UniProtKB/TrEMBL annotation:
Gene3D superfamilies: 3.30.300.20. It comes from the Bacteria. This is OsmC family protein.
């Protein structure tokens, strides 16, 4: 068995509406409560970071699956959206919606398009972050698959 370890240092100098920092090997940023939740909105926040973790895990997983399947693409991009519900003062990270856009080579066949669609869905269930939040956060896809013109 192989294990990978990741480390993060966090600093929070004051009270609720202060600004802290986080630092990892490849990430250093300010953190605070977002403006939407009556915070200062400086740097990033846990809501964006969970969305970012889910989105980057998904798109990297999808790209790797496409490569292993030898499915050639012109472009792969994505937008993602998170929904946080606030009921009776309780914040619940409810949903993440990924909207990948896969643009295949102009020569792509109907079979290539079908494979791209299958891989788009398989990548979601294969992504480590998706598996980590499974049962707590609903993750859905609204994929677009096109061929280059």
């Amino acid at each position: 068995m192989v294990r990978h370890y990741f480390h993060l240092q966090a600093s929070w100098p004051g009270l609720r509406n202060d600004v802290g920092t986080i630092e990892c090997e490849q990430l250093k940023t300010k953190i605070s409560i977002p403006k939407e939740m009556d915070g200062p909105g400086i740097g990033t926040n846990p809501d964006e970071m969970l969305l970012g973790a889910a989105a980057t895990c998904y798109i990297i997983t999808l790209a790797a699956m496409m490569e292993r399947s030898q499915l050639e693409k012109e472009d792969l991009s994505m937008s993602s959206e998170a929904v946080v519900d606030v009921t009776n003062g309780i914040f619940t990270y409810e949903k993440i919606i990924h909207r990948p856009v896969i643009i295949l080579k102009e020569s792509a066949t109907a079979q290539d398009i079908a494979l791209a669609r299958r891989l788009a869905h398989k990548a979601e269930s294969s992504c480590m972050i998706s598996r980590a939040v499974q049962g707590n956060v609903d993750i859905s896809l609204e994929e677009t698959i096109k061929t280059a013109q």
